[in-house]
Target: Restriction endonuclease type IV Mrr domain-containing protein
Amino acid sequence: MTKFQQEENSPVQKGKNFEMKIEKLLTDANIKCEITGGPSDKGIDIKGMKKGVKFIIECKNWRTKNIDRSIINQIEGVLSRQSNGTISIVAAPSMNRYTPGAKKTARTRE
Model:
């Protein structure tokens, strides 16, 4: 395997590819957004707006690790630093990646 192939398959690159995929899905749906992810993204991988509603997205391209309450709590902390009316989203490749506790926590938050 070449160094390029190793980098292409790295967890960081897989995360960036997932961010680009989510951004493309949104853009294709005429939703204005931009990738902000990177080492200093402060918990926001994508930000955008649809019909005057701002949103932030944290992308988790996890294949072996589940998204638990701690991730929901982290995005809530990030959301608390945003303007009123901003919504937050945690994007994952499958709903199966969310633990029951994470789903319950996300559903009960305003």
